[in-house]
Amino acid sequence: MSKHVDGPIGMASALVRSTFVVNAVYAASAREYGLTQQQGQLLCVLMAQPYGMSELGHVLGLAKSSLTGLVDRSERNGLVRRRPDPQDSRAVRVALTRRGARLADEFYTETCRRVDGLTSRFAPTERDALAGLLGRVVADNKVPTVFVGPDRMR
């Protein structure tokens, strides 16, 4: 049984609890676009460029079998396609289809809007400070680029 505790919380609790909030927003956005969270992540990663399967597995943190299933489902839905890798005839690269690129752009834009809304009551300086600090956490821990801000995509 847990109690809701208001007031200041520690760093670990704040970071862990914030992941629940962000994941809930991300999941709701994905559902509204007919995607799973992992499909949403896949589309957002592929917005930048096509990737090989091993690169995708690393970036998304998925085992080979899980990634293969994710790409298979996304391919059946017309969102991605596999192409031969020009540098390695045994490998494939996964890229967005036109439909996948349109959906990725819509999903990405809406999800950014929703996640940004989580800090809508913050002053601009507070938002900048939070983004800077979280950016350092991401950089210091070498988190793969899965979702970049709108200002960095275009």
Task: Write a compact overview of the structure shown.
The chain is mainly alpha-helical and 154 residues long.
List keywords for this structure.
single chain; 7 helices; 3 strands; 11% strand
Strand order of the largest sheet: 1-3-2
Distance between the termini: 46 Å
Helix content: 55-70%
Low-confidence sequence ranges: none
Overall, the morphology is elongated
Count the DSSP helices.
7
Radius of gyration equals 17 Å
Could you say which structural class the secondary elements and strand pairing correspond to? Answer: mainly alpha
Give the DSSP E fraction (strand runs of 2 or more residues). 5-15%
Tally of strands: 3
Biggest beta sheet attributes = 3 strands, antiparallel
SSE ordering: HHEHHEEHHH
Mean pLDDT score: 90
Notes on the structure:
- The protein is mainly alpha-helical and 154 residues long.
- 61% of the residues lie in helices and 11% in strands.
- The protein has a three-stranded antiparallel sheet with strand order 1-3-2.
- Helix 1 (11-32) crosses helix 5 (98-117) and helix 2 packs across helix 5.
- The longest helix is centred in the N-terminal third of the chain and has 22 residues, at 11-32.
- It is elongated and about 55 Å long.
- The termini are far apart.
- The relative contact order is 0.13.
